[in-house]
Amino acid sequence: VPNDHTHILVPHTATPKGTLNGNITILTGTNPDGTAYKTSNPVSAHALIDWNGDAYKLGKSEETLWHAGQSNWGNLVWLNYHAIGIEVLGPTDGVFSEEQYVTTTKLIAHYMAVYNIPPERVLRHKDVTWTWSKKSLLYDGKSPNRKPDIADTLWNKKFKSWDAYRRSIVPKAL
């Protein structure tokens, strides 16, 4: 199923610095020697932002990749089919580099321009991942088991809210 590019999802990997190759292996399913990496969960993203702000293209934008997991947003289920995924190598201490902030913002602006995605459709992983409860598998906003996410620490040095950050981004193709 092709990706219809109606949303942008910005998850992160909470990993120690210096694990770029390990994350590329996990996110692409390929070891550095070209052999397949075995994983029980298909994890992937369209782009990966390194600590120094370098961006790596991991998949084609028209492909459906597995960055959202089991997810929903509004009437959409399985955001993997609808969102471009920008994975950021995330710190375990919650402190992102200025270079990551700049590159992530530029890449979001690029995808907003290319696919005409409005700011309200730029989402955090925790906005879309499912809440596991006996009553519902849909997000209720109250689960203590929600995935901590990049948006909580990438934007809050400069903006008061996630909404203020994403609305500040001016769409501009690279």
Low-confidence stretches: 132-141
User: Fraction of residues in helices?
Assistant: 10-25%
Strand content: 15-25%
- Total of helices: 5
- Based on CA atoms alone, the radius of gyration comes out at 15 Å
Largest sheet: 6 strands, mixed
Order of helices and strands: EEHEEEEEHEHHH
β-strand number: 8
Condensed summary:
With 174 residues, this protein is α/β, with parallel strands linked by helices.
Q: What's the layout of helices and strands?
A:
Layout: E1 7-10, E2 12-14, H1 20-28, E3 47-49, E4 55-57, E5 72-73, E6 76-77, E7 83-90, H2 98-115, E8 122-124, H3 125-128, H4 151-154, H5 162-168
Parallel strand pairs: 1-7, 1-8, 2-7, 3-7
Antiparallel strand pairs: 3-4, 5-6
